[in-house]
Amino acid sequence: MALFAVIARRAPVGISADEFSTRLAQGFQYTKELEDKGVLKHRWILVGASAGLNVYEAGSHEELMSLLYDSPVAQHLNFEVYPLIDPTRFDPTRHITARGNAANAA
After folding, report:
1. Which CATH class is domain 2-105?
2. CB of 96 within 8 A of CB of 103?
3. Where do the structural domains in the chain lie, given as residue ranges?
4. What is the pTM of this model?
5. Per-residue confidence (pLDDT) for residue 88, from 0 to 100
6. CA pair distance 39, 7, nearest whole angstrom
7. Burial class (CB in 10 A: 0-12, 13-18, 19+), 11
8. Spatial contact of 37 and 70, defined as CB atoms under 8 Å apart
C-alpha cells in the first residue's frame, strides 16, 4: 500500500452553481465514507484556495484513480497527485555513501 496526497481544486465548467453545490455535498459524503473505511487517512480544506487536501492509502495508481473518479463531483475537479514516503524509511546518507564508494572505486 502507498500513500498519496491529493489536492482537489474546484473546476465547475458546464454546470450551474446550484448543481455544483449539490454534487460537492455528495462528494463530501463520499470522502467521509472513504475515511470511515480507512482508505482516506486525512482530509483538510485549503482555506481561501477553493480546494481540499486529502491523503489516500491505495494499493496502486489505478486504485487511486478509481477512488478519485468514483466521487460524484470528480468531473468538476482538477486533481494534483503527490506520492508520499515515510521519512523514517528514507536514509539520505545511504545515497551519499553509495556515491562516495563509486567514486573511490573509479
Report:
1. alpha beta
2. no
3. 2-105
4. 0.80
5. 84
6. 16
7. middle
8. no
Q: Is 72 exposed, middle or buried (0-12, 13-18, 19+ CB in 10 A)?
A: middle
- Tens of pLDDT, residue by residue, the chain (106 residues): 899 999 999 988 889 999 999 999 999 999 999 999 999 999 999 999 889 999 999 999 999 999 999 999 999 999 999 999 888 888 878 767 656 665 566 5
